[in-house]
Amino acid sequence: MNPFDFEQLRPGKADCPSDMSLWRLNAGELQGNTARELQQHVESCPDCSTRMAERRAGFDTFPEVDPQRMLAAIRRQGEAKATSSWMSRLRLLLAPLAVVAAASVFLIARPHHSGEAITDAPDEGRLKGGGVLHVFREVNGLGQEVVNGEHFKPGDRLRFTVDLPAESRVQIIGVEASGHLYQALPQGAETVTLPAGKAQPLAGAVELDESVGPETLYLVSCTTEGAAPACASTGASTPPTCRQGCETKPFVLTKGR
Amino acid sequence: MLGENTIPLPSTRVSIDSKHVGSLFMKHGPMVYSRARRLMGNHEDAEEATQEIFVRVITSGEAPPSPDEVVLWLSRITTNYCLNRLRDRRRRTELLSTKVLGAGEDETARSKADQLAQARALLARADERQAQAAVYVFIDGMSHQEAADVLGVSKRTVGNLVDRFTAWAREQTELPATRRSSAGGAA
Fold it and tell me: How far apart are CA A244 and CA A225, in angstroms?
């Protein structure tokens, strides 16, 4: 085999995005110019349109796969193998949460509490790149981190921590399926200023309302100089525009019953 | 001091357990299966790989590095798992070592599937790090920078790994079978 044939193995043409990029685009893990440029390429490239459609179809692309059967086997084997030590440790770590779990909750788009900035010293480690949003669902008064794209039910209560590479003005906004943009946190102020560091909790919580369908939360982190983020919606499937010096990181919620 | 309406959330990420693996699987399972299918070459091995990878996700206690790097994280796990399986398969049968590596065949007549089969044969025998880089760059079509991000190395290191893999692969396909080595040079 001529080793240069390896070049022919790649999917798409030479200037087409990698498999990984398309999977990340499909998962909502890319943002800003990267996402926009990829989307534009996909729309203009028949090959990549097909590749992207396959990703959107999920397991329907693979008729030979029975995802429910496979998931059942995964759960069965996982539960058989899993030790409960980490869960016990987690419960101990988070036990104090149960005491104060009822505080500072508001319905999305219907806030009725004001929030308070966190001032505890964060992790001092420096981070590369932009901010990172971590989302936690309250389960029996404990915080269970959820992944981008996870499914949620009305009434689910969410809390947040952020990783920041530098001191930033921060807010969390949401864009509904209709494209309507609202501010989720902080409550009672446009932004909260947080120092650089990992796992910094944001005051307050969000309780999901009765609406269903996809919804995207964005961590907006801005330089401390300058005006408020002033983000504006550009539609349900594209990141909002904010003032210069602000970055957005999406987190996709799929709300169902 | 925390505000009275603040919950002190954990400073470490929470692992994925069997109750919460469902949404992860339905969202990212197609990617893992697709990737495993491409690397392993058949449905049965790909299904087994997908299943085993998600079981390991549950039982390892490991969590994604961040919510917007889940694809990278699962892709890395899938690549490593499949490369190990290819090596195991090679050790069990040695079926990949001769036929698909025969030099001098009419390359233009080979389908992409044949080429992938040949690639698997080489990947099963190559140095581990070089094989990982080759998968990301040649089979996934990643840029060196993308591959560097996934591998956690520099872009330059990816270039070196790919160059060494290519040189080694050339050696494997140009020399007689008796002179083929079983692994690439150190990365």
Answer: 11
